[in-house]
């Protein structure tokens, strides 16, 4: 395939800000339902466990979007894709706010997650437009938007539902997604004319990249280990916070998660180090920060100070590592950034799901110490990706 690839060095500050803001607003859509499962269950006369299907379909929908939508960015005009996906997502979120039953809400929320993969379309474009010596910095700004959206969604969703009801959460998200999405479209350059490529050919090429590119495999392995460790801790964090001796309320435990916003502030600095020293070193620093956090968290059942320090350090380690690892993955072949990002993000997301399940299982068997040990095991597996190519 031959395609018109945007010239490097054409990434303006306005475009970078738009991409970061759009990433933060749209990624939040995946996590909207998590804090409002209780009110949703009450509305439809269901149990909280049954209402949890809304969260499950959102996760499954996002996975489907990673696999089946992102590769289109290597053949379609990404400017048009961002516009179309923003409109579709907004419509599906409006439908979610009006859902007459729990099954309908679950389906609509899942479909909205399929189309809310806009951030993972923007990142490869930002990489292509940025000067090669500044790709890490540019990507890290978009990732700062992502982490802000992920961490902030849970808090904003809960507060908005408490004030205006859970349906308002989806309605407000629809309006923000549409406004910011279309504003971003105005800032994006067109990809120009591209030769049409068979969609299934794009999908069939994914395993080939994974087989032939050792740099891609190592970046995926490092990030998979990091994200699995992060989710093992983050999924069970509320359990240790609400248990004796800390005894936090559920609302207070949720606010502790805002410590993760510290990682958004550090993301641009991590990107600059990637540009200067390379992704392998920064990827190692991310794993080391996560290992330090896991060791500190061992003390979390008896020391609130240790628990809070570890809680702040975990997302920092994750963000530093992702700034390096995603840069390494997409730098393999920026022209195929959509497919490379599909492989990177899908492996990361699947590892995160594995980490969540493993963390919950470990907590049930061995308590918080079991969670921390599980996180260290995942990090050891991720460290295998640090070895140099022969």
UniProtKB/TrEMBL annotation:
The keyword Transmembrane helix applies. It is a multi-pass membrane protein. Keywords: Membrane, Transmembrane, Transmembrane helix. SUPFAM superfamilies: MFS general substrate transporter. InterPro entries: MFS, MFS_dom, MFS_trans_sf. Residues 15-390 form the Major facilitator superfamily (MFS) profile domain. It holds the Pfam family MFS_1. The keyword Transmembrane applies. CDD domains: MFS_NepI_like. It comes from the Bacteria. Its main location: membrane. The chain crosses the membrane at residues 15-37, 49-70, 82-99, 105-127, 139-157, 163-185, 224-243, 249-269, 281-298, 368-386. This is MFS transporter. It comes from Saccharopolyspora mangrovi.
């Amino acid at each position: 395939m031959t395609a018109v690839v945007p010239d490097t060095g054409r990434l303006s500050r306005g475009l970078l800000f738009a991409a970061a803001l759009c990433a933060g607003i749209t990624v939040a859509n995946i996590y909207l339902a998590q804090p409002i499962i209780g009110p949703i269950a009450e509305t439809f006369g269901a149990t909280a466990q049954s209402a949890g299907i809304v969260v499950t379909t959102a996760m499954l929908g996002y996975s489907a979007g990673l696999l089946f939508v992102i590769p289109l960015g290597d053949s379609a005009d990404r400017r048009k894709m961002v516009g179309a996906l923003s409109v579709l997502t907004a419509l599906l979120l409006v439908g979610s706010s009006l859902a007459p039953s729990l099954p309908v809400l679950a389906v609509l929320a899942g479909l909205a997650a399929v189309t809310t993969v806009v951030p993972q379309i923007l990142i490869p474009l930002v990489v292509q437009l940025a000067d090669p010596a500044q790709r890490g910095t540019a990507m890290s700004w978009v990732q700062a938007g992502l982490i802000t959206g992920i961490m902030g969604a849970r808090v904003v969703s809960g507060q908005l539902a408490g004030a205006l009801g859970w349906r308002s959460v989806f309605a407000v998200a629809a309006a923000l997604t549409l406004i910011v999405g279309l504003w971003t479209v105005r800032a994006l350059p067109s990809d120009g004319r591209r030769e049409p490529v068979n969609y299934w050919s794009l999908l069939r090429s994914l395993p080939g990249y994974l087989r032939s590119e050792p740099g891609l495999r190592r970046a995926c392995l490092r990030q998979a280990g990091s994200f699995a460790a992060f989710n093992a801790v983050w999924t069970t964090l509320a359990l240790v916070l609400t248990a004796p001796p800390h005894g936090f309320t559920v609302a207070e435990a949720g606010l502790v998660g805002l410590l993760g916003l510290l990682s958004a502030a550090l993301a641009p600095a991590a990107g600059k180090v990637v540009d200067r020293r390379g992704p392998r070193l920064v990827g190692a620093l991310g794993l080391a920060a996560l290992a330090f956090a896991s060791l500190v968290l061992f003390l979390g059942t008896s020391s609130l100070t240790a628990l809070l320090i570890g809680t702040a350090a975990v997302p920092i380690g994750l963000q530093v590592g992702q700034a390096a690892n995603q840069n390494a993955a997409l730098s393999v072949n920026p022209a195929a950034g959509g497919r490379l990002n599909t492989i990177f993000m899908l492996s990361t997301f699947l590892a995160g799901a594995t980490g969540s399940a493993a963390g919950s299982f470990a907590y049930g068997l061995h308590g918080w110490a079991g969670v921390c040990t599980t996180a260290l095991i995942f990090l050891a597996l991720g460290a295998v990706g640090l070895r140099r190519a022969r």
